[in-house]
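User: Here's a chain of 87 residues. Predict its fold as tokens.
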Amino acid sequence: MNSSQWHEVGGALRRDFEFADFSEAWAFMCAVAEAAEEMDHHPDWSNSWNKVSISLRSHDVGRVTDRDHRLAAAIDQIAGGSTVSHS
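Assistant: Prediction complete.
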């Protein structure tokens, strides 16, 4: 995982993504949802048109764990295959 892309804020890993349009943002969210289901670890996120904000924290222990880092790496891989710009 590229640590400069994810920031730990308030006990969670956070990252924002910006896409060309809603369709790209939605496709990204669908791909992340599939990865999260496979890992049985799910993000907190929000979407506003072409923007997606993701927060990762292991709710069962109330902090960031290896599960969050693994999901963040999977999300990075998904984002790497798109025309996403990162903030």
